[in-house]
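Listing S7. Sequence submitted for prediction.
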Amino acid sequence: MTSEEELTNFESEKPQEAQAAEVKAVPADLPEKPDSSEEPSSSMEESPSQKLRKSSEDERAWFVIHCYSGYENKVRYNLEQRIETMGMKDKIFDVVIPTQEEIEVREGKRRSIERHVFPGYVLVNMILSEESWYVVRNTPGVTGFVGMGNEPTPLRPEEVSQILKRMEAEAPHVKVTFKAGERVRIIDGPFNDFRGTVSEIDMEHAKVTVMVNFFGRETPVELDFLQVEKS
């Protein structure tokens, strides 16, 4: 167990940037690219959403830690190693990075990617004590807990439920490279190689309406996302 004096000295020595991160407000969605070198997890491992669903014990709660965007996977790996080597499995239970499947449409091709829902944030299920706080806070890459002052603030049950809904959405989010008012080129179908202006984007049905100049008149043409690319 770390003494109060040691923790006080540690706090006073922290870089100013790290201290500022301690009081960083939580994004609106929380109450609101990944490190590719991380080894893939076992197929038997629980998914992040399954971990979030675990019933809380008397003092067990979900806390949010902040790190630099793009280092979420590295921070999770570092923390899981510290939990193992420092014998903290009875105080720190799960480390979760909320993710959501995203379909990216680029140059007429679909690509499935896993997007971090809250870049720069990692969730930790733990029993908060001086010792567990010290282990998490001193993990390489962690810049602080989210909370008021130096006191970590646990997520409320309704906030955990909100995160779960985003992670378990039935249809993946579709990301396109064009937006309304931009010029695009049609690369498939009867109007192949025509150019026009995007007038409407239907994310639900993955359709885009393009205004095409046809025989001197602006004609709306409905197309699939895969049939156009940014001009």
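Caption to Listing S7: primary sequence and predicted structure tokens for the chain studied. The chain has two domains: 4-170, 177-230. The CA atoms of residues 91 and 127 lie 5 Å apart.
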